[in-house]
């Protein structure tokens, strides 16, 4: 059976990665979390003094981009690939609210986007990939056979992210999480390079009132339709 490319875009915390991971596992495809790559660059920038509360040394960071190596390694126990920054597993560190605060700013930089997009296209060169992000259906894989665009209200998304952070033991405030979600929506959709927009041929799914199960079933049916059509 021919493999296809599946692009899942949408606002932050719309549950893209949860559905993408399960879809990839069900179809036997690889899953790539493109947001994790921007988060890993952000962690590097934070740890090496290029970005902080009131400053961003964009030129300095661009000059050392060649020192940033991002790879994914499949974790059998978890059932998905974890992200490594310069050979160190940073899967947990990149999910903090701290990293979320700076990541959208990092993702506005064209030199960084160019490097990430090239690597993402390499991951997908043989198809059989489910990739989620903001520009996957528009820039990374404009010819993807299936493009999904996930939306949900900011309040629902903030609640989901808040529950996730609390479950892993982080001390966070719901209002801070909501503010972060809204501010990232704004930066991600208004930036000059590859802003978050729905591709003309993407299917929009509002999952505000859907369970994970309902959402997966809809997405899975779309995927099967496309796979059957291309075979
Ligand atoms: O999906 P996420 O919340 O982990 O993504 C983190 C940030 O990375 C998001 O605010 C915008 C940026 N991003 C991007 O610009 N392009 C992508 N393909 C994926 C993420």
Secondary-structure blueprint of this entry?
Elements: E1 5-10, H1 16-27, E2 30-33, H2 34-47, E3 51-52, E4 55-56, H3 58-63, E5 70-75, E6 80-85, E7 88-89, H4 97-106, H5 110-123, E8 129-133, H6 136-140, E9 146-151, H7 154-167, H8 174-190, E10 203-206, H9 212-230
Parallel strand pairs: 1-8, 1-9, 2-8, 9-10
Antiparallel strand pairs: 3-4, 5-6, 6-7
Class by alpha and beta content: alpha/beta
The whole-angstrom Rg is: 17 Å
Q: Hetero groups bound?
A: 2'-deoxycytidine-5'-monophosphate
Count the strands? 10
What is the helix/strand order?
Answer: EHEHEEHEEEHHEHEHHEH
Distance between the termini: 6 Å
Mean pLDDT: 95
The coarse silhouette is globular
Enumerate how many helices there are, as a single number: 9
The main sheet comes to: 5 strands, parallel
What level of helicity do the residues show? 40-55%
* Strand arrangement, major sheet: 2-8-1-9-10
Low-confidence stretches: none
What proportion of the residues form beta strands (DSSP E)?
15-25%
How does this model look, in words?
- By secondary structure, the protein is of the alpha/beta class.
- About 50% of the residues lie in helices and about 20% in strands.
- It is built from nine helices and ten strands.
- It has helices at about 15-25, 35-45, 60-65, 95-105, 110-125, 135-140, 155-165, 175-190, 210-230; strands at about 5-10, 30-35, 50, 55, 70-75, 80-85, 90, 130-135, 145-150, 205.
- The chain has a five-stranded parallel beta sheet with strand order 2-8-1-9-10.
- Strand 5 (about 70-75) and strand 6 form a beta hairpin.
- Helix 2 (about 35-45) packs across helix 5.
- The protein is globular and about 50 Å long.
- The model has no long low-confidence stretch (mean pLDDT about 95).
- It binds 2'-deoxycytidine-5'-monophosphate.
């Amino acid at each position: 059976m021919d493999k296809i490319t599946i692009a899942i875009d949408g606002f932050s915390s719309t549950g893209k990665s949860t559905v993408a991971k399960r879809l990839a596992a069900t179809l036997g495809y690889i899953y790539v979390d493109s947001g994790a790559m921007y988060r890993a660059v952000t962690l590097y920038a934070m740890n090496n003094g290029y970005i902080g509360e009131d400053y961003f040394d964009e030129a300095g960071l661009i000059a050392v981009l060649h020192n940033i190596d991002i790879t994914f390694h499949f974790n059998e126990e978890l059932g998905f690939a974890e992200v490594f920054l310069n050979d160190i597993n940073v899967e947990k560190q990149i999910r903090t609210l701290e990293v979320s605060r700076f990541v959208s700013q990092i993702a506005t930089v064209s030199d960084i986007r160019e490097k990430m997009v090239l690597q993402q296209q390499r991951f997908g060169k043989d198809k059989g990939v489910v990739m989620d992000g903001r520009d996957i259906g528009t820039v990374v894989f404009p010819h993807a056979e299936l493009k999904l665009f996930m939306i949900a209200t900011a309040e629902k998304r903030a609640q989901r992210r808040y529950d996730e952070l609390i479950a892993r033991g982080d001390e966070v405030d719901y209002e801070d999480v909501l503010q972060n979600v809204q501010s990232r929506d704004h930066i991600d959709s208004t930036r000059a390079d590859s802003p978050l927009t729905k591709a003309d041929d993407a299917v929009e799914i509002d999952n505000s009132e859907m369970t994970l199960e309902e959402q997966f079933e809809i997405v899975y049916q779309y995927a099967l339709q496309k796979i059957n059509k291309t075979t």
